[in-house]
C-alpha cells in the first residue's frame, strides 16, 4: 500500500507499507493514469499491463490505483498491489474508503483555510504599517503552504517596488527586490494588466519571466492580484514560489484567492492611515518650513500616495497667470518660464469653471484623448514636448485647488506608461491634498503680496523695472541652456507728453493705465509686459525669434494707436532685440533694443528690429 503525490512530471512516495525501494515513479504508469483520468484503475494481471511499474523485491499480480480528492481536485493516489486478484466487493469497499479519505482531506483543507485566514486577519489588525502587514502575511502564507519565498509588489509608476518579501536570500534576487520590476517585466505585471491570477510550474517557459529567477532554475510560482476598491487595476500583486516543480491544487488556489481578498481589506485600511499621516505631516511642516520649500514636498507626497501617479507638477496662480512651482519627473527649470492664462488652464482641465471651483478632479487617458494636442493648445509645443514630456503622458489626473471663489492652483499627476493608471481610488486619494494645498497657497499668497508690492508698479499694476531685471535674467539663462530664442521689446509712448501737458497728470495717469490694459489684453500666452517708469514699457517674449517678436510688436503698436484722449491719440516706438543674434548678455540686448527704440523714434516708425 502506498500513497503517491505529484512531483516533477511523476509522483513522489509520501508513505508506504511495507517500505519499498522506490521514492519516485514516472507519470506513465497506472498511478499516473488514475491521477490524470480522475477515476480508479484496476489491473487484475499486471503481467498484461505494458505501463506497469514493478516495486523492487515484491511479487505482485494485481494493482488498484485510487485517486484521492481535495475539494474536487485530485491531489494524490492511493495505490494497492498484491500477489492475487482483488475481489469485486474488495474493489468496491476500497473505492468507498478512498471517497471517505477524500471527504476528510476536503474537510481538513477547509479547516486549514479558515485557520490561515483567521491568523491573517488577526495579523493585519495588529499591524501598524503597510510594510509590517505585508511581511506578516508573506511569512504566514509561505510557511503554511510549504513554499520557499514570496514578495508583495506595489505598483509605483513605471516600476513595481517590493513592499515586503520573505525567504529571498540569493544576491541576484535581492538586487531585483532593491531595483524593482520595470514596466512589463515579470508575472506580476501580467497580473496587473489582466487582473487575473496566474499559476505555473514551468516558469522557464514564460516570456515575461524575470531573468534572475530563470537563471536560478525556479519553476513554480503563483501571482495573484490583491483587490483595490475603486481601482481599474490591482495596485498590489502577491507572488509566491519555489524552485521545485509542484502543482497548484484547487484548495490552495481557493485559499490564496481568499487570502488576497482579506489582505486587500487590511492593506486598504493601512493605506488610508498612511495617507492621513502624510497629510498631517504637511500641515505641521507649514509651521516650520519656508512655503516655497513645501511645494515640491506636497507634490512628492501626492505622487507617492495617489495610486497610479509616477510624475507630476504643481501650477500656482501668480499675477493672474499659472506658473510651474514644482515638478517631479519633468524639467522644472525648463518649465518655469511657461505661463498659462485662466482660460488656457481651464482648457487643459476640460471640465469647466464651475467644477474647477468645486475642486473636482478629472482624469485624461491616452486611450480616449489626444493628451499632447490638448497640451499644445495651452503652451508652446516645443517646450511641452521637451521639458513637459507631454507626448509621453498616458494618463493625467488634474486636481483644481479652489479657495474663496478662485482656483489658486492645479495639481497634475501623471502616468507615462499606462492609460488606465487612474481610477476612483486615485480621485479619492487626490482629494486628500486639496485642503493642505489650499492652506499652503493662501499663506503663500499673503506673504507674496508684500513682495509683489515691491515688484509691482502701483499705477498700472504691471511688474516694475526691478521685476523686469529679475525676470529677464531668468529667461535669458533658460534660453542659453535650452537653445531657444528670446526677444525683448523696449516701448516708448508717442503723444503722452501732450496728454500730460494739455489734459493734466490725472488724465496722463489714465492713459498709462489704458496702455497697461492694452498690453495685458494683446499679449500672447507667455509674453511678459513691464512698466519701466515714465512713459516707457518693456515686453519679454520667451521662445520667440525676431519674426515672431516683430509681429507681436506691431500688434501692440496698433492697439496703442487706438487710444485717444480728447483728440490726442497715443502711439508707440518699439525697439526689438533677439537672443542670440543681437547679444548674449542682458546689457547687450537691452542696449540693442534701447538704441533701436530711439532710432524708430527718429525715423517716425512704430517698430524697428
UniProtKB/TrEMBL annotation:
<dbReference type="Pfam" id="PF00990">
    <property type="entry name" value="GGDEF"/>
</dbReference>
<dbReference type="GO" id="GO:0052621">
    <property type="term" value="F:diguanylate cyclase activity"/>
</dbReference>
<feature type="domain" description="GGDEF">
    <location>
        <begin position="484"/>
        <end position="609"/>
    </location>
</feature>
<dbReference type="Pfam" id="PF13185">
    <property type="entry name" value="GAF_2"/>
</dbReference>
<protein>
    <submittedName>
        <fullName>Diguanylate cyclase</fullName>
    </submittedName>
</protein>
<dbReference type="InterPro" id="IPR043128">
    <property type="entry name" value="Rev_trsase/Diguanyl_cyclase"/>
</dbReference>
<dbReference type="GO" id="GO:0005886">
    <property type="term" value="C:plasma membrane"/>
</dbReference>
<dbReference type="GO" id="GO:0043709">
    <property type="term" value="P:cell adhesion involved in single-species biofilm formation"/>
</dbReference>
<dbReference type="InterPro" id="IPR050469">
    <property type="entry name" value="Diguanylate_Cyclase"/>
</dbReference>
<dbReference type="GO" id="GO:1902201">
    <property type="term" value="P:negative regulation of bacterial-type flagellum-dependent cell motility"/>
</dbReference>
<dbReference type="InterPro" id="IPR003018">
    <property type="entry name" value="GAF"/>
</dbReference>
<dbReference type="InterPro" id="IPR000160">
    <property type="entry name" value="GGDEF_dom"/>
</dbReference>
<dbReference type="Pfam" id="PF01590">
    <property type="entry name" value="GAF"/>
</dbReference>
<dbReference type="InterPro" id="IPR029787">
    <property type="entry name" value="Nucleotide_cyclase"/>
</dbReference>
<dbReference type="InterPro" id="IPR029016">
    <property type="entry name" value="GAF-like_dom_sf"/>
</dbReference>
Amino acid at each position: 500500500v502506498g500513497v503517491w503525490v505529484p512531483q516533477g512530471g511523476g509522483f513522489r512516495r509520501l508513505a508506504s507499507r511495507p517500505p519499498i525501494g522506490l521514492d519516485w515513479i514516472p507519470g506513465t504508469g497506472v498511478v499516473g493514469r488514475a491521477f490524470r483520468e480522475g477515476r480508479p484503475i484496476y489491473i487484475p494481471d499486471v503481467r498484461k499491463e505494458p505501463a506497469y511499474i514493478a516495486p523492487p523485491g515484491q511479487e505482485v499480480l494485481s494493482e488498484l490505483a485510487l485517486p484521492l480528492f481535495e475539494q474536487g481536485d485530485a491531489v494524490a493516489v492511493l495505490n494497492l498491489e498484491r500477489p492475487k486478484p482483488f475481489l469485486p466487493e474488495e474493489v468496491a469497499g476500497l473505492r468507498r474508503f478512498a471517497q471517505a479519505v477524500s471527504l476528510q482531506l476536503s474537510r481538513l483543507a477547509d479547516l486549514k483555510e479558515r485557520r490561515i485566514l483567521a491568523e491573517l486577519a488577526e495579523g493585519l489588525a495588529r499591524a501598524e504599517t503597510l510594510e509590517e502587514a505585508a511581511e506578516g502575511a508573506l511569512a504566514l502564507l509561505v510557511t503554511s503552504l510549504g513554499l520557499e519565498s514570496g514578495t508583495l509588489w506595489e505598483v509605483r509608476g513605471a516600476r513595481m517596488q517590493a513592499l515586503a518579501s520573505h525567504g529571498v536570500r540569493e544576491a541576484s534576487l535581492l538586487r531585483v527586490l532593491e531595483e524593482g520590476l520595470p514596466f512589463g517585466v515579470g508575472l506580476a505585471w501580467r497580473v496587473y494588466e489582466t487582473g487575473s491570477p496566474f499559476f505555473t510550474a514551468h516558469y522557464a517557459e514564460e516570456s515575461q519571466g524575470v531573468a534572475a529567477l530563470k537563471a536560478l532554475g525556479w519553476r513554480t510560482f503563483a501571482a495573484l492580484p490583491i483587490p483595490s476598491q475603486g481601482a481599474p487595476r490591482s495596485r498590489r500583486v502577491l507572488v509566491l514560489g519555489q524552485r521545485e516543480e509542484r502543482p497548484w491544487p484547487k484548495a490552495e488556489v481557493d485559499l490564496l484567492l481568499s487570502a488576497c481578498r482579506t489582505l486587500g481589506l487590511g492593506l486598504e485600511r493601512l493605506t488610508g492611515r498612511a495617507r492621513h499621516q502624510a497629510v498631517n505631516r504637511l500641515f505641521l511642516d507649514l509651521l516650520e518650513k519656508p512655503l516655497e520649500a513645501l511645494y515640491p514636498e506636497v507634490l512628492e507626497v501626492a505622487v507617492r500616495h495617489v495610486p497610479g501617479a509616477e510624475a507630476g507638477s504643481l501650477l500656482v496662480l501668480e499675477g493672474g497667470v499659472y506658473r510651474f512651482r514644482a515638478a517631479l519627473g519633468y524639467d522644472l527649470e525648463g518649465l518655469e518660464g511657461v505661463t498659462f492664462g485662466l482660460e488656457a488652464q481651464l482648457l487643459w482641465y476640460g471640465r469647466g469653471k464651475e467644477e474647477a471651483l468645486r475642486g473636482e478632479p478629472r482624469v485624461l487617458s491616452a486611450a480616449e484623448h489626444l493628451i499632447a494636442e490638448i497640451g499644445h493648445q495651452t503652451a508652446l509645443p516645443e517646450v511641452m514636448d521637451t521639458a513637459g514630456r507631454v507626448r509621453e503622458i498616458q494618463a493625467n489626473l488634474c486636481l483644481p485647488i479652489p479657495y474663496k471663489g478662485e482656483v489658486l492652483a492645479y495639481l497634475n499627476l501623471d502616468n507615462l506608461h499606462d492609460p488606465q493608471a487612474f481610477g476612483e481610488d486615485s480621485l479619492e486619494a487626490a482629494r486628500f491634498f486639496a485642503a493642505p494645498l489650499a492652506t499652503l497657497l493662501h499663506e503663500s499668497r499673503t506673504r507674496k503680496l508684500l513682495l509683489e508690492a515691491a515688484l509691482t508698479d502701483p499705477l498700472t499694476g504691471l511688474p516694475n523695472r526691478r521685476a523686469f531685471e529679475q525676470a529677464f535674467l531668468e529667461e535669458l539663462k533658460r534660453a542659453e541652456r535650452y537653445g531657444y530664442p528670446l526677444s525683448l521689446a523696449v516701448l516708448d509712448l508717442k503723444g503722452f507728453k501732450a496728454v500730460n501737458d494739455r489734459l493734466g497728470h490725472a488724465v496722463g495717469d489714465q492713459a498709462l493705465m489704458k496702455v497697461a490694459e492694452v498690453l495685458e489684453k494683446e499679449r500672447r500666452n507667455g509674453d511678459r509686459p513691464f512698466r519701466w517708469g515714465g512713459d516707457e514699457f518693456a515686453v519679454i517674449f520667451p521662445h520667440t525669434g525676431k519674426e515672431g517678436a516683430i509681429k507681436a510688436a506691431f500688434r501692440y503698436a496698433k492697439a496703442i494707436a487706438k487710444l485717444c484722449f480728447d483728440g490726442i491719440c497715443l502711439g508707440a516706438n518699439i525697439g526689438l532685440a533677439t537672443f542670440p543674434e543681437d547679444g548674449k548678455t542682458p546689457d547687450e540686448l537691452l542696449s540693442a533694443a534701447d538704441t533701436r527704440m530711439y532710432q524708430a523714434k527718429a525715423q517716425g516708425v512704430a517698430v524697428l528690429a
